[in-house]
Amino acid sequence: xxxxxxxxxxxxxxxxxxxxxxxxxxxxxxxxxxxxxxxxxxxxxxxxxxxxxxxxxxxxxxxxxxxxxxxxxxxxxxxxxxxxxxxxxxxxxxxxxxxxxxxxxxxxxxxxxxxxxxxxxxxxxxxxxxxxxxxxxxxxxxxxxxxxxxxxxxxxxxxxxxxxxxxxxxxxxxxxxxxxxxxxxxxxxxxxxxxxxxxxxxxxxxxxxxxxxxxxxxxxxxxxxxxxxxxxxxxxxxxxxxxxxxxxxxxxxxxxxxxxxxxxxxxxxxxxxxxxxxxxxxxxxxxxxxxxxxxxxxxxxxxxxxxxxxxxxxxxxxxxxxxxxxxxxxxxxxxxxxxxxxxxxxxxxxxxxxxxxxxxxxxxxxxxxxxxxxx
Length: 375
Fold this sequence. Notes:
This is anthocyanidin synthase. By secondary structure, the protein is of the alpha+beta class. It has one domain: Jelly Rolls. Helices cover 29% and strands 18% of the residues. The protein has nine helices and 14 strands. It has helices spanning 7-12, 35-41, 67-82, 95-109, 113-116, 171-195, 203-209, 292-297, 354-374, and strands at residues 50-52, 85-89, 130-133, 147-154, 228-236, 248-251, 257-262, 268-272, 275-278, 286-290, 307-309, 317-325, 332-333, 352-353. Helix 3 links the parallel strand 1 (50-52) and strand 2 (85-89). The two termini are 25 Å apart.
């Protein structure tokens, strides 16, 4: 049988069993299943931490006498260290901004598939942005049960706006507005995370936006760069065998931070204390992941969280993910000197650009996939 090009088409065809290309290897099915069922049957008290950062909305400085802010710093530090993920409350993004974003993204995926194909990407030719479906380029060689829309969100002047949907009409304005809020939130969180390592509040953002690479023109000590915000809307259709499939396989994000909204349908699982924890809905919050770039800068004090996406038999899941990344070539990712000055805390990571880190991860995936094929 010739597979449909999009997972949505396969789901809508009414198949009762998923094709073999979507069945995960046996060693990946630990605690896989219908996301609704797993939540209903979960008797564990362990939950992803919820942290209210509202005391930092007005300023990112921490007066030594401000107990409320000190408690926020400690809560964020602990969540980033022990979990690598947290629900952020008090983030300052108005409900109407988040609702507009959800409506715009849901409206795009409600279009007929042939209309969405006008924005199709072409990974084979290097065009990653646009509408697509994950093919067999992951570690296992299997397909994932998702379609997606991916494009640069900020800086706006670098975005390829012809890849932004013209329908629904509100997509561009709603997405731009949300991007501005997330950029501000990223700065606030990076300040809090810097303070959590007893560093100046601007330290992490400075490291992510300062040109350290002499091969890139400009003054390597002075040139300030923009962090890049990449938007990915994940669309997970209803799946007849969720115990065999995943929306996205287990991975860590390469970003410094990742921000996640969703449509209220469960699906995120994170690895914590040697078990998979299924995220519960926390009204009004945004989920934040620590990514590889921040783990490197913090020399492992903050944990890049291993996570995956579940699917279910009942409802379409949609999630909006914004990846906050340093420029690919100009910024050198390396443990901060202040964190490796003591002999008991040697550097755990070798310096690399963000692009080099991506290449390292891609190489490891290719090697793992080759082993699977060879076996």
